[in-house]
Specification:
By secondary structure, the protein is of the alpha/beta class. It has one domain (3-114): MTH938-like (Hypothetical Protein Mth938, Chain: A, 3-Layer(aba) Sandwich). The chain contains three helices and eight strands. The strands form two sheets. A five-stranded mixed β-sheet has the order 5-4-8-6-7, sandwiched between helices. It is globular, with a radius of gyration of 13 Å. The mean pLDDT is 95.
Length: 117
């Protein structure tokens, strides 16, 4: 899979551009539905990544692109759930997360990419 941060607010995955947060689950890309996490927005100053969302659990690693400036909050419950499932969370600014995804030779990547902040 080839991924890159094109600009603030836009990423490209395998030639397709997205101007919204995405979830990658084993080669399938879809929009991140962050509405379930909006209830925590005031507490975090930004809509965080929470277990209320659809998270692509599975495999050994979940890559989280935390935005252009690395400001996406990840709620502690996400980290705890990952630990219980034996999944490593790799949280990096989105440009670095895209480079890491691009190094993967197969379609087994699981990731959540935030395109702003």
């Amino acid at each position: 899979m080839k991924a890159r941060l094109v600009d603030f607010g836009e990423i490209e995955i395998d030639g397709q551009r997205y101007d919204y947060d995405v979830v990658i689950d084993q080669g399938k890309v879809h929009k991140r539905e962050k509405k379930p996490s909006k209830a925590y927005r005031e507490q975090y100053g930004h809509t965080p990544l929470s277990t209320d969302e659809e998270i692509p659990w599975g495999g050994k690693r979940l890559i989280v692109g935390t935005g252009a400036y690395g400001n996406l909050p990840i709620m502690p419950a996400i980290l705890e759930e990952a630990k219980q499932r034996g999944i490593e969370i790799v949280a990096l600014p989105t440009d670095e997360a895209c480079r890491l995804i691009s190094k993967k030779e197969n379609k087994k990547v699981r990731a959540i990419l935030h395109v702003t902040c």
